[in-house]
Write a structure and sequence with these properties.
Layout: E1 5-9, H1 16-29, E2 37-41, H2 47-53, E3 59-63, H3 80-86, E4 90-93, H4 96-101, H5 106-118, E5 122-127, H6 131-135, H7 139-151, H8 156-159, E6 163-166, H9 180-197, H10 200-205, E7 208-211, H11 219-223, E8 230-233, H12 240-247
Parallel strand pairs: 1-2, 1-8, 2-3, 3-4, 4-5, 5-6, 6-7, 7-8
Helix pairs in contact: 5-7, 7-9
Length: about 250
């Protein structure tokens, strides 16, 4: 049985005081949750503040990105080792905004995944197709390329430690959400890809999240699907009441 994971990606939002208040509000209201794993990903500058605010709560902290080296002459970058030292337990990798705006390639993303694993952090590997690719019937080809590219050269045991987040690019920040069936079909295909790269047991245990305009009013249907194991939440994770409702999705 895969334990659901609800992750909040705060993106480029929230000052230190705002981050502290949001984290405190979540900690106050989610302190008794045991049947769902919860994490939030603040901006780099607020990581330590949020870690402190969440002390004693079941909510973990993730980073939104990392550099694929632990130390060295890489001005302006942050390594998995430093993120772990700051209190992170996971890192979001390969988000579509970084793939599109910063031209991140599968090769770079794979390097980040492996460096995170070496540091003992959980990589949350983001994949997803654009609307043009979906309309051109290229969706499965794109997902296969991104899954394979992100997980290449990993052992089955390493793949077991990776969380996949399927985020159709056309649904991110647009208010448009994939239908329950569309999301399930994509997740089922991704699980099959993981099985091909590892084995049936590891694929069955791998958590695959859905992201893309997840809100309190659509989370129940999405997470009722067999292969959807949680959500990577964007805008709704910035509001205490909305994120609480998503964590308490109806089974």
């Amino acid at each position: 049985m895969r334990k659901p994971l609800i992750a909040g990606n705060w993106k480029l939002h929230k000052t230190l005081s705002e981050s502290r208040a949001l984290a405190a509000g979540l900690a106050d209201n989610l302190s008794d949750v045991t049947d769902v794993d919860i994490l939030v990903a603040p901006v780099f500058t607020a990581i330590s503040t949020v870690v402190d605010a969440l002390q004693g709560s079941p909510i973990a902290v993730a980073a939104q990105n990392c550099y694929p080296q632990q130390t060295g002459a890489y001005t302006g970058e942050v390594s998995p080792l430093l993120l772990q030292d700051a209190g992170c337990s996971a890192v979001i990798i390969g988000h579509s905004e970084r793939r599109q705006l910063l031209n991140e390639t599968n090769t770079l993303i794979n390097q980040k995944v492996r460096t995170c694993l070496d540091a003992g952090l959980t990589p949350i590997l983001c994949i997803g197709e654009t609307l043009e690719q979906r309309n051109n019937d290229e969706m499965l080809e794109v997902l296969a390329d991104q899954v394979t590219g992100g997980l290449i050269d990993l052992t089955p045991e390493q793949i077991q430690r990776v969380v996949i987040a399927y985020e159709p690019v056309w649904a991110i920040g647009t208010g448009v959400t994939a239908t329950d069936d569309q999301a399930q079909d994509a997740h089922s295909f991704i699980r099959g890809m993981i099985q091909g790269l590892s084995n049936q047991e590891i694929a069955a245990g791998c958590r695959i999240l859905y992201g893309g305009s997840v809100k309190p009013d659509n989370v129940d249907g999405l997470l009722a699907q067999d292969d959807i194991d949680g959500a990577l939440v964007g805008g709704a994770s910035l509001k205490v009441e909305d994120f609480i409702r998503i964590v308490h999705f109806k089974r």
